[in-house]
TrEMBL record:
Removes the N-terminal methionine from nascent proteins. The N-terminal methionine is often cleaved when the second residue in the primary sequence is small and uncharged (Met-Ala-, Cys, Gly, Pro, Ser, Thr, or Val). Requires deformylation of the N(alpha)-formylated initiator methionine before it can be hydrolyzed. One of its GO terms (biological process) is proteolysis. It comes from Morganella psychrotolerans. This is Methionine aminopeptidase. Belongs to the peptidase M24A family. Methionine aminopeptidase type 1 subfamily. Keywords: Aminopeptidase, Hydrolase, Metal-binding, Protease. It catalyses: Release of N-terminal amino acids, preferentially methionine, from peptides and arylamides. Binds 2 divalent metal cations per subunit. Has a high-affinity and a low affinity metal-binding site. The true nature of the physiological cofactor is under debate. The enzyme is active with cobalt, zinc, manganese or divalent iron ions. Most likely, methionine aminopeptidases function as mononuclear Fe(2+)-metalloproteases under physiological conditions, and the catalytically relevant metal-binding site has been assigned to the histidine-containing high-affinity site. The lineage of its organism: Bacteria, Pseudomonadati, Pseudomonadota, Gammaproteobacteria, Enterobacterales. One of its GO terms (molecular function) is initiator methionyl aminopeptidase activity.
Length: 265
């Protein structure tokens, strides 16, 4: 397993790409309202990335993906294709997944948004999913096994009677969109990977209200929960530091959030 250790120059460039990706999510937040189409949200993101940021959307054209961001609504787990005919309704939960390329390096992040007023279940699912990400982020430091992150996420999520999707995982990132290692969000084989300073990867748990199994739609991209339950996901790009990690894609509305998360051992 060839895991690239990032140089200081790499990290500097990833810091820029990560901030731009976070900025896209900050920009789009007020636009996620009932009545807007996911196609319009994609258009706004694309314009912001390409015009204002003078950057590149890594998703557009990636293995044929037709849009600039992935937008996944309600029971869509991931890779939802934005569409002008897909209109958000009151209470919809929406994941927007953004990957920006700037100066050859990637910044990858996603967050949940709620159109209008959420159900209690939907709001709780989003909160637990975000907390599971924060839990793992606070554990990152040199010398720990990679699999301990996934084990902690799984334990936390299942303690709330939800399930963690097994078919998709986090990944190394840098000049490549998807690099080694694979970052599982459950307790599975990590190939013996031990975290080292300079390793950069994403953590991006996908959490379902019901069963963790999924199904892929005929378009070859859209992934939904098999039992039609709701799904949520949050994602950050990070680099391992001397005694923890630097979150490259931290949003302004998350300031102080990591220190407030209760770690469940």
């Amino acid at each position: 397993m060839a895991i690239t250790i990032k140089t200081e120059d790499d990290i500097r460039k990833m810091r820029v790409a990560g901030r731009l990706a976070a900025e896209v999510l900050e920009m789009i937040k007020p636009h996620v309202v009932p009545g807007v189409s996911t196609g319009e949200l994609d258009r706004l993101c694309h314009e912001h990335i390409t015009v204002k940021q003078d950057a590149i959307s890594a998703c557009l054209g990636y293995h044929g993906f037709p849009k600039s961001v992935c937008i996944s609504v309600n029971d869509v787990v991931c890779h939802g294709i934005p569409d002008n005919d897909k209109i958000l309704k009151n209470g919809d939960i929406v994941n927007i997944d953004v990957t920006v390329i700037k100066d050859g390096f990637h910044g990858d992040t996603s967050a949940m948004f709620i159109a209008g007023t959420p159900s209690i279940q939907a709001e709780r699912l989003c909160k637990v999913t975000q907390e599971s990400l924060y839990l793992a982020l606070r554990m990152v430091r040199p010398g720990i096994r990679l699999r301990t992150l996934g084990a902690a996420i799984q334990k936390f999520v299942e303690s709330h009677d939800y399930s963690v999707v097994r078919d998709y995982c986090g990944h190394g990132i840098g000049e490549g969109f998807h690099e080694e290692p694979q970052v599982l969000h459950y307790d599975g084989d990590d190939g013996g990977v031990v975290l080292k300073k300079g390793m950069a990867f994403t953590i991006e748990p996908m959490v379902n209200t019901g069963d963790y199994r999924i199904r892929t739609m005929k378009d070859g991209w859209t992934v939904k929960t098999k039992d039609h339950g709701l799904s949520a996901q949050y994602e950050h790009t990070l680099v391992v530091t001397d005694d923890g990690c630097e979150i490259m894609t931290l949003r302004n509305d998350e300031e102080g959030a990591l220190s407030r998360i209760l770690i469940v051992q």
